[in-house]
Amino acid sequence: MFKKVLLCTDLSPPSELLLQAVETLKKVGLEEVLLVHAVFQAHNPVLEAEIMAKRTLRMQSQKETLENKGFKVTTEMPLGIPAPTLTETAEKHAVDAIIVGSHGKGIFKKAALGSVSTEILHRTSKPILLVRVELNKEDRMQQSFEELFSAPLFCTDFSDTSSAAFSYLEKVVETLQCPVTLMHVQDRSISETYYLQRLEDINRAIINELTPLKEKLLSLGAPEVKLEVPFGSPKELILEKVRSKKHSVVIMGSQGKGFMQELLLGSVSYSVVRKSLIPVLLIPPSQA
């Protein structure tokens, strides 16, 4: 699925969790990791040298951790504003995807979704795996991603972008033979009265569209494929599924120009990324 990824690290303790998430991708073909830490200049030669020395040691430690897991690892510490620097580095090295974390410390600082993560979502045209990384009060990792694709939740609106995202799900299922939930939310905001009058007919039509996807996944080795067609707010119902703790990752297509045109308008993909407690793999339109 992904042979080479760019892993964004801020070298903080929570970023160590990203290394665990990367390890799970080895099962679906990952071979090479470009480990990148974007560096702001301190404008103080003495302080800058001290900071760089510490960061270099942490970078080497993370590199060795990944190498011990069997990956080919290259490191870079480019100078510049993090988000544009990271996305430019991804393009320069032609990686297949970007992995980025969000938490309350370091360069990923700001509420549930860090400002750097948000900017990368704006800028990149590559698939991006966003992982919530946090520590508890005892400075221990709150999540475990040993089985990232053990129970994917695939959300579709039947768009071309969703079709592109489905091709990635096919590769996951073919390799790991995991159970899957396919979900399409009937959006209440489109026309509630119209939907309520024809809800049964619309449900039947949507199930008919989801059934070929289900049959394809079963043919690839999925032991179980559930179909869910709830009625209501897409972002709220998807997040409700996430909170059920029955799924290991959300896979869905993004929408709009570039990567997330509707970011400031509260798009479904942005809302899911911002609030999801489990990893989210977003596939952009250009991957169709």
TrEMBL record:
It comes from the Bacteria. InterPro entries: Rossmann-like_a/b/a_fold, Universal_stress_UspA, UspA. Residues 1-132, 153-284 form the UspA domain. Signal peptide: none annotated. CDD domains: USP-like. Pfam families: Usp (PF00582). Belongs to the universal stress protein A family. This is Universal stress family protein. It comes from Heliorestis convoluta.
